[in-house]
Design goal:
The complex is a heterodimer of chains A (322) and B (333).
Chain A (H helix, E strand, L loop, with lengths): L1 E4 H15 L3 E5 L14 H9 E3 L4 H12 L4 E5 L10 H8 L2 H4 L9 E3 L17 H5 L5 E3 L4 H13 L4 E3 L9 E4 L11 E4 L4 E5 L3 H14 L4 E5 L2 E3 L3 H11 L2 E8 L4 H12 L9 E5 L8 H6 L4 H12 L1
Parallel strand pairs in A: 2-3, 2-4, 4-5, 5-7, 6-7, 10-11, 10-13, 13-14
Antiparallel strand pairs in A: 1-8, 6-12, 9-11
Helix pairs in contact in A: 1-7, 3-4, 8-12, 9-10
Chain B lengths: L10 H26 L14 H8 L7 E3 L5 H6 L4 H8 L32 H15 L6 E6 L6 H12 L4 E7 L2 E2 L2 E2 L9 H7 L4 E5 L3 H16 L5 E6 L17 H8 L3 H11 L4 H24 L24
Parallel strand pairs in B: 1-2, 2-3, 3-7, 6-7
Antiparallel strand pairs in B: 4-5
Classes of the chains: A alpha/beta (322), B alpha/beta (333).
Chain lengths: 322, 333
């Protein structure tokens, strides 16, 4: 049993994979000096500048080159620094990476991972704070992963690197320093949710950083006599419908909490699916909590106003169980 | 511009080019016929008038070299060695097409001959080329990657970002700008600042060469020399091949943006006629040259008939090759 940070867990996973498979390489801006968040610290020393490649600030070229490299016998791990910057490379991701296998009739696959650090990180404002995971779930061909713990960041990154299709891998910037146990060296299968806590009164579905807020809310609710089951989806496409449906069939109540803008967020997909397939189990309306449809502001009090907090989650949970 | 030389030509080599150019022309004409007969329903972008570039570039590539192309990619794909039967089936959306009829004309590809795909997004193949060349370098192979794109692509970001990438990583990439003067249906010069592709590449430190793209001999020689330099590890090169698109932008282009007289004049520089003239002057038997045309037409007529007779892909193909994890055959909703 080893304890490590969320950032180090990903570094350890990538390092082990690169030792195992010489066709894996990482590319992005400032990687040689450890990456903007230190997630690659020391890796250039071990693997050299060819496999930990410092690139120009050319997001479209980084991702587009990764597509060509993935179709030509290597497995690139792309670093985008901020999920927001990946929007400069949306053609390369959506029109190229996600489509190549299909539109070429299976003649090729595109085994790449694009790391897109997401989410609010104190006073980073509108262009460095977004949670855009639901966009990618809409694109056939992509796998979408949002790890919330060091263990998951280790095991899910390993599985993502081994996946033969493009994976949008969204680490939350606010979790880099989070410490946790990484009990083994095994990959964690994509598409399988984690039951973070069991309970029979209501189901809270979440992912990424907001899972931790949901867990804090669950502690408060427990003190009030309510047992919340917290499900960390971990992977948004494919997402673990069975885990969610089983839980809702047990609890009869569903609350989905995510940091992204609520309108058109992935919570809507979860809510619609449960309404469709487990309607008769529901004892209350499905509730969603996300950000208002507002860009992320800079000033701390304004930024905090948009956050999905444990207090907000607990308040809606109480409403649901009243 | 490098001009046509007619001395010391390798006749056998030129005959191979001549035959290939006729095969491309005949394939495009069959594709246009298929469009007229409403058997090709999506857009096709014929390359009539640009065959010398496809032949001159691709016959100089090794079979294990890689190629990426544009929406106007039939000629390049055929020249790289793809089977025209599979290609025509793909254009008609039929089973037995390169991509089981799921890509069509704009995504024509044959990975078995190193053709990594035409691309529906202008300039997108430049980044893919840079990355494929990057992989080749990482894998320590001596292959090269060639990217053919049009003059319209030089105003998109990938022309800057992809060429810069190829320079800074010293990659084995040959960039070919097939300059037919039109960005879709707009005169490229009217929307392009500065001196164009070659000057932009030079500014990035990429040596470039401009040739008459309707003169097979010039292209053949230029490509041969730049490829040997690229394969020797000297980094990327740009070739600008000046040409003219004799057909419309697409099969359904009313072509109202240029004078008929301009197009008629351009036919006088038809690259196939040009090369035929060289060969005739070199005393090649006219029957051989005529046979190239008739054989190509016979071949492509058979290709067209085969494709027409081919069945649609089974409906199950719609759900294949999306992705392994999250496969729609398991769960699509």
């Amino acid at each position: 049993m080893t304890t490590m940070t969320y950032a180090d867990a990903a570094k350890q996973a990538l390092t082990e994979e690169m030792r195992r498979d010489p066709t894996i390489w990482a590319l992005g801006e400032d990687l040689g000096r450890g990456g903007v968040f230190g997630q690659y610290q020391g890796m250039a020393e071990e693997f050299g500048p060819e496999r930990i490649a410092d690139t120009p600030i050319s997001e479209a070229a980084i991702l587009g080159a990764a597509v060509g490299a993935a179709m030509s016998g290597t497995r690139p791990v792309v670093e985008m620094r901020f999920a927001d910057f990946a929007l400069c490379a949306i053609d390369e991701l959506v029109n190229q990476a996600a489509k190549a296998r299909y539109m070429f009739g299976g003649q090729t696959k595109v085994p790449l991972v694009v790391r897109e650090p997401m989410g609010m990180w104190r006073s980073s404002a509108a262009q460095h704070s977004q949670s855009l995971e639901s966009w990618y779930t809409h694109i056939p061909g992509l796998v979408v992963v949002c790890p919330s713990t060091p263990h998951d960041n280790f095991g899910l990154l390993k599985s993502s690197i081994r996946c033969d299709d493009p994976v949008v891998y969204m680490e939350h910037k606010n979790l880099w320093a989070l410490e946790g146990a990484v009990p083994d060296c095994d990959p964690i299968p994509l598409g399988v949710a984690r039951i973070a806590r069991t309970g029979q009164d209501l189901t809270i579905v979440s992912w990424s950083s907001t899972c931790h807020e949901a867990m804090l809310a669950a502690v408060t609710l427990e003190e009030e006599g309510l047992e919340a089951e917290v499900i960390d989806l971990r992977t948004l496409w494919p997402w673990d419908k069975r885990a969610v449906l089983d839980s809702v069939e047990k609890t009869g109540r569903l609350l989905i909490a995510h940091e992204a803008v609520q309108v058109g967020g992935f919570g809507a997909e979860v809510a619609a699916t449960v309404a469709d397939r487990a309607f008769s189990s529901l004892r209350a309306p499905i509730k969603r909590i996300g950000a208002p449809r507002v860009p992320i502001p800079y000033a701390p009090p304004l930024e905090d106003l948009l956050r999905v907090t444990p207090e907000r989650i607990a308040a809606v949970a109480r409403e649901l169980t009243r | 511009m490098v001009s046509q030389k007619t001395t010391n030509v390798d006749i056998d080599r030129l005959l191979k080019h001549h035959a290939l150019m006729w095969r491309i022309r005949a394939f495009e004409e069959a594709a246009l016929q298929a469009h007229t007969e409403k058997l090709v329903l999506g857009a096709i972008h014929p390359s009539i008038g640009q065959e010398a570039i496809a032949a001159g570039v691709c016959l100089n590539l090794r079979s294990d070299d890689l190629l990426t192309s544009t929406h106007r990619g039939h000629g390049h794909t055929l020249a790289k060695g793809a089977d025209p039967n599979q290609m025509m089936r793909e254009l008609l959306g039929r089973e037995g097409g390169n991509s089981h009829g799921k890509g069509g004309s704009m995504h024509i590809a044959d990975f078995s001959v190193g053709m990594l795909g035409a691309n529906g997004v202008v300039g997108a193949n430049i980044h893919i080329t840079a990355g494929a060349a990057h992989a080749i370098k990482l894998l320590k192979s001596d292959r090269i990657v060639c990217s053919i794109f049009g003059d319209g692509a030089i105003n998109r970001g990938p022309f800057l970002e992809g060429l810069n990438w190829a320079v800074v990583f010293n990659l084995p990439a040959l960039f070919v700008c097939e300059d037919n003067g039109f960005a879709s249906t707009t005169s490229t010069s009217s929307v392009t600042g500065g001196k164009g592709a070659a000057a932009r590449a030079e500014a990035l430190g990429i040596p470039s060469l401009t040739v008459d793209g309707n003169d097979l001999i010039s292209i053949d020689e230029a490509v041969r020399s730049v490829i040997s330099s690229i394969r020797a590890g000297n980094g990327p090169r740009l070739l600008v091949a000046k040409t003219y698109r004799l057909s419309g932008h697409t099969a359904s282009d009313p072509d109202t943006y240029r004078l008929r007289s301009e197009v008629e004049k351009a036919w006088e520089s038809d690259p196939i006629t040009n090369l035929g003239g060289v060969l005739r002057r070199a005393k090649v038997d006219t029957v051989i040259l005529d046979n190239h045309e008739s054989n190509a037409r016979i071949e492509m007529a058979a290709v067209f008939s085969d494709a027409k007779a081919a069945s649609w892909p089974p409906l199950s193909r719609a759900f294949e090759d999306v992705q392994d994890i999250g496969d729609p055959r398991q769960e699509a909703f």
